[in-house]
C-alpha cells in the first residue's frame, strides 16, 4: 500500500512539474545560476571572508545570514548525499548522476524563488519570531490559509519521518557498529544528544550548525578528493559513462548491467530533489528566520546551498563510488546498496580509515539534519497555530461557529503545550528510528515530502511576478 502510494506521488507528474517550474525560472532569469555565477557567489560564500565580528557592543542576531545558511544546509545535507546517491547509482546506473546535475541546476532557481517569496511575505510575530516560509506565501500571497495549513501539517509529519526517524536510523546503521553499541543504547545516545541541543533553543541550534556543517563538509570533501586523486586515471572513463548512460537511446534496450535512460532519469531527478529539497518549500521555512536581509539576498543563499549540496557533495560521492568500482561494470556487480556501498568504495582506496570516514560523515550529516528539522518543525507548528487562529476567528465572525478542521489546532494559550508535545514526539521519533527497520518509513516519509511539493509549486507558479519583482 505504502509502496504504491509512494510510486503514485513520485510519479512522472511530480518529476515533470519540478523540472517545469525550475526550467521556467531558469529561462525567465536568463539562466542566472550560470550567467550570474560571480554575482551570487560573491553575495554568499564569497562574502564570508569579508565579514568581521561587530565590536560596537551591539547584540548580534541569533540567526545571521551565515547561521541561517548553515542551518538550511544542515537540513539538506544528510543521508541523501551519501546513501541516496549510492541508491540512485544502484537503481539507475551512472546516467543517474547526469540527471542529478540537471535536478540541481534547475533546482537552484526553484530554491531562489521559494526562499525569496518566503522572505518577502514573512511577518514578525508578537514573540519576536518570524511567520514565514510556504505557510506565509500560501496564506498571504495566494490568500489560501487552508492550503497553507495543509502544507504545515504535511511538513510536521515529514519532520517526524524524514527529519528524525530516517536520519536516526542512518546514524544507528553506520556509526553504531563502529562504537560497538547495541541499537537501544545507540538510540538513547543519539536522542540525548539531539535533546541536549534543541532544548538550548534557537541560539544553540544556530551555533551548533554554524560550526558542525562546515567542519563535516570539509572533512568529507578532503576524503573524497583524496580518493579521486588516487583514481584520477578513471575519471574520464566515468564521466563518459555518465553522459552515455543518460543520453544514449540504446541504453533503454538493455545497456551494460541492465540500466536504461528512463531509470537513470527517474532516480537521478528523484534523488536530487530528495537531497537538495528544492521545490518542497523547506528551504523557505528555514530562511524565514534570517535577520537583516532581503528576499533577493536570501534567494541567492538558497542557490548556493543547492549548488553545494548537489553539484559538489553529491557529485563527489558519485565519482568516488564509480571510480572505486571501476565504472559501470563494477557497479553492476557491487552487491551492496546505500551507505554500505559508499563505505566499501572509500575503504577500497583508503583502507579502514575510508570506512570510518563514511560512517562519521553519515552520522554528522544525519545528526545536523535532525537538529535543523526540529527547528523547521517548531517554526511550522507556530505558523500552523497562527493560521488555525485566523481561520477560527474568520469562521466565528461569519457563522459564530468554529470549523471542525481547526477545532483541534491550538489557540494562542495552548502554544507552549503544543510545543512540548511536539518535542516529546520528535524525541520519540528519533529513538524509534534508532531501533527500527525503516523501509516503510523511508517511503512514507518520501510521500509526505512529495505531497508538500504540490501546494508549494502551485504558489511558485501563481506568484512568479512577485519573485521577479525582486
Kindly list the characteristics that best describe this protein.
Amino acid/polyamine transporter I; single chain; 470 residues; mainly alpha
Outline:
This protein has a single domain (60-468), classed as Amino acid/polyamine transporter I (Up-down Bundle), CATH 1.20.1740.10.
Instruction: Give the SSE string.
Output: HHHHHHHEEHHHHHHHHHHHHHHH
Strand content: under 5%
How many β strands by DSSP? 2
What is the radius of gyration?
22 Å
Summed up, the helix count is 22
Question: How would you characterize this protein structure?
Answer:
The chain is an all-alpha fold. The protein has one domain: Amino acid/polyamine transporter I (Up-down Bundle), CATH 1.20.1740. It is about 75% helix and about 0% strand. The chain contains 22 helices and 2 strands. The chain has a two-stranded antiparallel ribbon with strand order 1-2. A hairpin with a 5-residue loop joins strand 1 and strand 2. The chain is globular and about 70 Å long. The relative contact order is 0.21. About 5% of the residues have low confidence.
List the helices and strands and how they pair.
Layout: H1 2-9, H2 12-28, H3 32-35, H4 37-43, H5 65-76, H6 83-92, H7 95-120, E1 123-124, E2 130-131, H8 134-141, H9 145-179, H10 183-198, H11 201-230, H12 235-247, H13 261-276, H14 282-287, H15 295-325, H16 328-332, H17 338-350, H18 352-399, H19 404-407, H20 415-435, H21 439-462, H22 464-468
Antiparallel strand pairs: 1-2
Helix pairs in contact: 1-21, 2-7, 2-21, 5-11, 5-15, 5-18, 6-13, 6-17, 7-8, 7-12, 7-13, 7-15, 8-9, 9-10, 9-18, 9-20, 9-21, 10-18, 10-20, 11-15, 11-18, 15-17, 17-18, 18-20
Amino acid at each position: 500500500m505504502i509502496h504504491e502510494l509512494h510510486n503514485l506521488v513520485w510519479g512522472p507528474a511530480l518529476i515533470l512539474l519540478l523540472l517545469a517550474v525550475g526550467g521556467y525560472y531558469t529561462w525567465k532569469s536568463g539562466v542566472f545560476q550560470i550567467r550570474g555565477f560571480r554575482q551570487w557567489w560573491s553575495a554568499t560564500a564569497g562574502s564570508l571572508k569579508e565579514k568581521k565580528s561587530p565590536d560596537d557592543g551591539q547584540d548580534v542576531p541569533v540567526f545571521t545570514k551565515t547561521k541561517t545558511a548553515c542551518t538550511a544546509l544542515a537540513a539538506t545535507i544528510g543521508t541523501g548525499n551519501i546513501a541516496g546517491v549510492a541508491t540512485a547509482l544502484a537503481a539507475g546506473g551512472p546516467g543517474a548522476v547526469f540527471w542529478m546535475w540537471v535536478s540541481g541546476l534547475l533546482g537552484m532557481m526553484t530554491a531562489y524563488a521559494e526562499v525569496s517569496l518566503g522572505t518577502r511575505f514573512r511577518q514578525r510575530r508578537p514573540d519576536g519570531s518570524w511567520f514565514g516560509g510556504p505557510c506565509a506565501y500560501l496564506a498571504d500571497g495566494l490568500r489560501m490559509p487552508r492550503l497553507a495549513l495543509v502544507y504545515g501539517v504535511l511538513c510536521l509529519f515529514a519532520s517526524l519521518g524524514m527529519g528524525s526517524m530516517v536520519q536516526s536510523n542512518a546514524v544507528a546503521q553506520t556509526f553504531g557498529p563502529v562504537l560497538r553499541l547495541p541499537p537501544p543504547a545507540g538510540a538513547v545516545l543519539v536522542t540525548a544528544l539531539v535533546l541536549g541541543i534543541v532544548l538550548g533553543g534557537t541560539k544553540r541550534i544556530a551555533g551548533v550548525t554554524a560550526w558542525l556543517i562546515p567542519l563535516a563538509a570539509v572533512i568529507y570533501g578532503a576524503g573524497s578528493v583524496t580518493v579521486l586523486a588516487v583514481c584520477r586515471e578513471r575519471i574520464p572513463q566515468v564521466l563518459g559513462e555518465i553522459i552515455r548512460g543518460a543520453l544514449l537511446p540504446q541504453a533503454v534496450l538493455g545497456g551494460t548491467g541492465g540500466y536504461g535512460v528512463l531509470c537513470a532519469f527517474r532516480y537521478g531527478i528523484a534523488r536530487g530533489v530528495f537531497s537538495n529539497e528544492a521545490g518542497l518549500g523547506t528551504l523557505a521555512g528555514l530562511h524565514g528566520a534570517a535577520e537583516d536581509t532581503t528576499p533577493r539576498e536570501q534567494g541567492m543563499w538558497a542557490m548556493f546551498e543547492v549548488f553545494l549540496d548537489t553539484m559538489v557533495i553529491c557529485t563527489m560521492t558519485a565519482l568516488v563510488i564509480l571510480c572505486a568500482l571501476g565504472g559501470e561494470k563494477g557497479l553492476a556487480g557491487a552487491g551492496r546498496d546505500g551507505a554500505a556501498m559508499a563505505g566499501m568504495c572509500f575503504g577500497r582506496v583508503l583502507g579502514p580509515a575510508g570506512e570510518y570516514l563514511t560512517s562519521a560523515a553519515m552520522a554528522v550529516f544525519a545528526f545536523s539534519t535532525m537538529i535543523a528539522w526540529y527547528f523547521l518543525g517548531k517554526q511550522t507548528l507556530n505558523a500552523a497555530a497562527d493560521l488555525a487562529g485566523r481561520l477560527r476567528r474568520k469562521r466565528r465572525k461569519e457563522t459564530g461557529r468554529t470549523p471542525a478542521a481547526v477545532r483541534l489546532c491550538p489557540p494562542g494559550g495552548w502554544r507552549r503545550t503544543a510545543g512540548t508535545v511536539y518535542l516529546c514526539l520528535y524525541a520519540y521519533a528519533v529513538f524509534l528510528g534508532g531501533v527500527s527497520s525503516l523501509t516503510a518509513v523511508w517511503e512514507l516519509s518520501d510521500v509526505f515530502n512529495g505531497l508538500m511539493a504540490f501546494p508549494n509549486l502551485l504558489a511558485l507558479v501563481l506568484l512568479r511576478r512577485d519573485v521577479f519583482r525582486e
